[in-house]
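Q: I'm building a small set of examples for a reading group on sequence design. Run inverse folding on the following structure and report the sequence directly after it, with nothing in between.
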């Protein structure tokens, strides 16, 4: 329950922007195959760009739950798209509401469905890939709360009509370029809604009734269906698309795991019309360019209202998309950078975040919440708790630094947070490794089962959806990535491990796990995975002692007493 006495008018606003299925290499600022994104480049100039950020899970719901809680999927229990935010988790909205923020969720939800969580969100205006939420779509709540739509709903519905009846150029993909009213497309409609939210709830510290706001702005693009307004499709003509490198025998020489090969059986595009493949890739990039203009509209409005200096803005994605890499479009449960490496930016010039710097250390999207809390002055994650010298047991860990009386936000409860503040944006030290996971320990999809489905006529995306639940659940795959190497293993499977030399092979075309020369590297990577598993093994951290022995401080008596 919200504590009405905890409002702190000096806290900064927060706008947490999440794109859906946007890989880092779609942006020129990350890769030569990407497109220019002026607004995100401007945001990088006004903050820190993280070159090697990864998602904790390359599936929508687990990735979003992990971002909001700063906890890995094996800790939250959200390991599949069918398992949304469990009730009672300590997540961003629970923290913000306790601190007296006006809270908002504009765009794709796909995370919060429990009533006790929805009650924490003051403004909720959801859009999905097909427009307004439908009652039968898990993770999307029909109706609005706290605001009406600034763009009429019939305009939004009309602009999404093609997405609900997409053409298919191939069994594996479809795309469209359309001429619906531009304000109805999600990228524009959500930006206009965000501008209206800022106008209604934004105010300056010191003004009567001032409260900070915290907004999750969740764009559904560039996730499939692949559809772009003609204006943006014209900005990314198909002939301008830079094709990623390929290896012709990648799936036939026996060097990759079964699940990677099976995914290619469903999503591979080598036998499709090359013009259609290039057109589909161009539409994905055009959707990205449209999204970029949306981010620019939000940044512009913060400047126009004078609220930019008191607003932390972060940008990332839940996970990526092949968009041509590894001869596929879309996504699946594998760990190539196309799916696990995401853009990540943190900007708050007036709050001391450096401008125009690129951080080359490893980072994870679960690091964003503790970064925001530390920048906001709510908590410090790299200090020992205060106490009387000689009596208090100094230990590393979070400590609450804001003036708040709360049973919800304490140094002990914040120990649930598994991410750590990002280096460069804060004074936290850089990290050399980042981790991701997939699966629930379920049975594998066998080649025999796959062949049986194909014999029944299931191919392409139809086959992908027919096998979705078993592929989401199979195994317990784990990934560790450094700047130089990536290692993927499934401890309970006899499938092949993966090791990629990211310096010699940045597109991860050759698995070198079986090269004897790499045994020392694999040993080091396994050690990193074991350390990570140990550090994150507790579902709820066990309370730690605060003293060396059985003595505790009694504030009311200003003395230390021995406990039993």
């Amino acid at each position: 329950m919200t504590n009405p006495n905890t409002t702190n008018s000096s806290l900064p606003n927060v706008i947490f922007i999440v794109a859906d299925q946007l890989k880092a290499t779609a942006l020129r600022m990350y890769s030569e195959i990407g497109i220019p994104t002026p607004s995100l480049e401007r945001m990088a100039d006004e903050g820190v760009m993280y070159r090697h950020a990864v998602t904790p899970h390359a599936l929508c719901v687990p990735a979003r739950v992990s971002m909001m809680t700063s906890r890995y999927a094996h800790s939250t229990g959200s390991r599949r798209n069918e398992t949304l935010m469990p009730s009672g988790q300590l997540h961003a909205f629970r923290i913000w509401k306790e601190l007296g923020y006006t809270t908002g969720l504009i765009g794709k939800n796909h995370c919060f469905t429990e009533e006790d969580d929805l009650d924490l969100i003051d403004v909720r205006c959801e859009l999905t890939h097909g427009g307004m939420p439908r009652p039968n779509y898990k993770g999307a709540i029909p109706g609005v709360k706290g605001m009406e739509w600034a763009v009429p709903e019939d305009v939004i519905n009309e602009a999404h009509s093609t997405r609900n009846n997409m053409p298919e150029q191939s069994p594996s993909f479809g795309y469209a370029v359309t001429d619906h009213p531009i304000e109805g497309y999600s990228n524009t409609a959500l930006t206009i809604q965000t501008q209206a939210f800022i106008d209604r709830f934004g105010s300056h510290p010191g003004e009567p009734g001032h409260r900070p706001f915290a907004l999750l702005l969740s764009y559904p693009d560039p996730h499939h269906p692949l559809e772009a307004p003609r204006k943006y499709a014209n900005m990314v003509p198909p002939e301008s698309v830079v094709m990623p490198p390929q290896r012709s025998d990648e799936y036939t020489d026996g060097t990759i795991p079964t699940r990677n090969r099976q995914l290619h059986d469903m999503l591979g595009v080598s036998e499709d019309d090359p013009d259609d493949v290039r057109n589909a890739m161009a539409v994905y990039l055009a959707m990205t360019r449209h999204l970029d203009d949306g981010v620019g509209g939000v940044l512009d409005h913060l400047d126009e209202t004078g609220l930019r200096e008191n607003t932390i803005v972060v940008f990332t994605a839940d996970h990526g998309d092949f968009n041509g890499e590894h001869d596929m479009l879309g996504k699946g449960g594998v760990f190539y950078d196309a799916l696990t490496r995401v853009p990540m930016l943190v900007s708050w010039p007036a709050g001391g975040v450096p401008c125009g710097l690129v951080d080359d250390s490893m980072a994870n999207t679960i690091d964003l919440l503790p970064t925001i809390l530390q920048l906001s002055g709510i908590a410090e994650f790299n200090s020992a708790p205060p106490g009387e010298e000689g009596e208090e047991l100094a230990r590393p860990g979070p400590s609450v630094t804001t003036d708040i009386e709360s049973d919800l936000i304490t140094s002990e409860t914040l120990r649930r947070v598994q991410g750590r503040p990002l280096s460069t944006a804060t004074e936290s030290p850089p990290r050399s490794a980042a981790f991701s996971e997939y699966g629930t320990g379920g049975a594998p999809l066998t080649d025999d089962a796959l062949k049986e489905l194909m014999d029944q006529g299931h191919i392409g995306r139809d086959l992908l959806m027919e096998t979705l639940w078993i592929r989401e659940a199979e195994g317990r795959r784990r990934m560790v990535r450094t700047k130089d190497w990536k290692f993927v293993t499934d401890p309970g499977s006899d499938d092949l491990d993966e090791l990629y030399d990211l310096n010699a092979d940045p597109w991860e075309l050759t698995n070198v796990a079986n090269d004897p020369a790499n045994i020392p590297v694999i040993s080091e990577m396994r050690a990193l995975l074991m350390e990570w598993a140990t550090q994150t093994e507790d579902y709820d951290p066990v309370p730690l002692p605060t003293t060396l022995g059985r003595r505790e401080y009694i504030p009311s008596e200003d003395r230390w007493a021995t406990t039993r």
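Residues 1-6, 384-395 have pLDDT under 50 and may be disordered.
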